[in-house]
Amino acid sequence: MSDRNLVVIGAGPKAMALAAKNTVLEELGFAVPQIHIIEKSAIGAHWNGCGGYTNGRMELGTSPEKDVGFPYQTRGYGQQLDSQINARMRAFSWQSFLVADESYGEWIDRGRPSPTHAVWAKYLRWVWEQCGSSVHLHFGQVQRLDIVDSLWEVEFAFGQHLHRLSAEGVVLTGPGKIRAIESELSATRVLDVESFWKSISTISKSVAPTIGIVGAGENAASIALALSQAAPSARIQIVSPTGFIFSRGESFRENRVYTDSAAAQWKALPLKERREFVKRTDLGVFSQYALKHLDAVAQIEIIPGRLTAHEAKGDKVTTTVRLAASIRTYDFDYLVKATGFDQSSTLEQLLTVQARNHLLAQLQSEKLTQSLLESRMEENLAVGGVFPRMHIPALAGLMQGPGFANLSCLGRLADQLLEPYLQGENHEQVRRRSYETALPYS
Q1: Number of neighbouring beta carbons within 10 Å of residue 66
Q2: Which of 127, 169, 253, 348 gives a 20 to 30 Å CA spacing to 367?
Q3: What is the sign, positive or negative, of the torsion defined by CA atoms of 75, 77, 78, 81?
Q4: Does one domain contain both 127 and 166?
């Protein structure tokens, strides 16, 4: 065990993947960092139905077998160590969880169904319970990120008390802030993803409400699906820029890119082609599961265009939608913004002025934007050129592979992110072997 610290903000799937891999590497003789996970409510809070991002009853959009160790292809430590790491990580697998839960046989007999979000959160809690002494869980709300003596200083509040941790690296997980449309949210009629899930019981009691959903991605799909079940009399109108709802690609070759971007030669593709691939397979698309159920709902309508303005007056929300040269207005009882997330806004909200200026100076930029951070993502999922390191896996898709932004390759994510923090005999031997292998023949 080393004296290095790595702070992870949020106790979701990525945090549990890092905790599990760190535990295994420590068992195999690596001097691993101390991982400190800071969580404001509960492990898997965005999944358990209580954290404001789901009701917990929706089905997981990806296979549960894409768990915290998937795809179990650790590379670079030599064949023997690689095999040992992959074998030991299977103790944290989805199947191992089902065995411990005494539900493996039933899951097989039912045809390996996708679990609900709440069950996935239960799996994440179980993973945490198997982790070792090199990982620590702190409950609290992160207040600020500063840089002191070339280290991150992370301040978080729990109750009336403030706590601080110093670390060589920070991992920002979670979806980030909702991208703004124009005006501020209304507490009751204009909702974002988080406030929608907290308000769905109130909405379901309305008599035949008309509900507008802005967005054509998986958040919009989950909201539409939940509304169709909780409020069968509701009229649901989805505002989509294209006027269509596209399905997520589920073919072998598409899925393979998410699992192993190196095998798919992701970095060799032009940026334009990478963006198009992500757009067609992950962003602005509904899962096959969501489409199957929503296709049977008669009261769903697609409004083509982009929302340019909205105003809440009394019990109605008046919206303006632009399509090419035409502008139309629509009135809704509720408007739900499911337009995606912005990690740069989340980061800026946490940074002190000193830390923000430090990052901007290292990035040689006057403004901290999502596109800038996205373009600088390195193989270890950190912003290139920024020290101490700031890892933002959700922004690594374009530069490193689309699977890092979601649940498609959590095991590989942990391998690449932890590599800069590993010390000890095993790691030095591997580094020496890799260097010697790269030497030219004499």
Answers
A1: 22
A2: 169
A3: negative
A4: yes
DSSP 261: T
Per-residue pLDDT at 435 exceeds 70 = no
Of 218, 229, 248, 436, the closest CA to residue 338 belongs to 218
Q: What is the pLDDT of residue 442?
A: 27
Question: Residue 158 in contact with residue 332, Cβ under 8 Å?
Answer: no
Band of residue 291 on the pLDDT scale cut at 50, 70, 90: confident
Q: Residue 107: which domain range?
A: 5-177+341-438
Mean pLDDT of 398-404: 97
Question: Is residue 379, in this structure, part of any structural domain at all?
Answer: yes
* Amino acid in the structure at residue 201: S
**242 backbone dihedrals φ, ψ, rounded to 5°:** -90, -15
Are 227 and 316 in the same domain? yes
Is the domain of 15 the same as that of 154?
yes
Q: Are 198 and 224 in contact (CB under 8 A)?
A: no
- Distance (Å, rounded) from C-alpha 107 to C-alpha 110? 5
Residues 323, 222 share a domain: yes
Distance of CA 338 to the CA centre of its chain: 15
Structure confidence by residue, pLDDT tens digits, 68-120: 999 999 998 999 999 999 999 999 999 999 999 999 999 999 999 999 999 99
**Short-list 406, 438, 426, 387, CA closest to 60:** 406
Pick the range with the lowest mean pLDDT from 60-74, 137-151, 325-339, 414-428. Answer: 414-428
Q: Are residues 113 and 190 in the same domain?
A: no
